[in-house]
Please model this.
Amino acid sequence: MDFPPLAWPAELHDDHFMLLDESRLPDTVEYIRVDDYDGAVAAIRAMQTRAFGQLLTVFYALILTARKAVSSATLQGAMDTACGALNASRPTFAFQDYTDRVRAWTDEALQRGDPHPADTIVRRIMELLDRIKKMRLNRARIAADLFDDGDRILTHCNTSGELLLTARFCRTQSKGLTFFATETRPYFQGRLTAWELSTDGFDVTLISDNRVASLLNAGRCSKVITGADRVALNGDIVNKTGTRQLAMLAHRFGIPFYAFVQEPGTTATGEDVPIEYRDGKEVVRFRGEDVYPAGTDAFYPAFDMTPHRYITALITFEKILKPADL
Model:
């Protein structure tokens, strides 16, 4: 099954990569050139890439760093510097779980005297990305088992193409699905979800973020599914701000709530995950234009934590689990 643009939003070249600018979607499908880890950090911080796109950006930036190291003697320092900068780009994401792995590969290659350590690092990263692509496709296939013909599904933010992949698997099983997507302010990622689903032929309705309770109360939604930027060992998730209210409302109305999750790492609970607080100006402006009166203050935590008690099941790369079983 082909990956949609948001599921693999970058293309690697010898000395740069082209990155899908999600801040321009769905009005314009535009790619930006990234030449090094500094450019990658800038794109991540500016929200030009999000969710899985950020992880892909991290890996491609490390590939470029390895390729551009002038010698084995400078490789270690270059990789350490790049990893540190990428880890600090956004505090809520666990990039360090992956950059530590790349650092370990670098150490191994240098300690054993590999004649071409940079090539070894690039090969291992590409092998990992190939496994991740297969794992994401498998997770979408697993998620399709959660849905039935006629389901009306509510989602929030954007799952980097994985909800679309799930919907495609359902279509091959003759399951007819319809979708509701929240706007997801202030960056309107819901527009991206509506764009990719509708472009692929699925029935999707965009709703404002404040219509969720009314939608669920009216019985117009049968299931809720979101992504998760982090998952803790107890099953708590951290995702785009506004996810918690969806889960709480779904619990209140007896509607199943599901989340795509990554490896949990070592974080014990969702309370232990640092929440990124972004500049409030991002709430009062849209694409550089003021949409509120000058001097208006805004509060913008980019994520919130959803306790495991509101989550019906977690969709891992291998199986569907109850939070308590994670």
Summary: DSSP finds ten helices and 15 strands in the chain. Residues 276 and 302 are 6 Å apart (CA to CA). The first helix runs from residue 37 to 45.
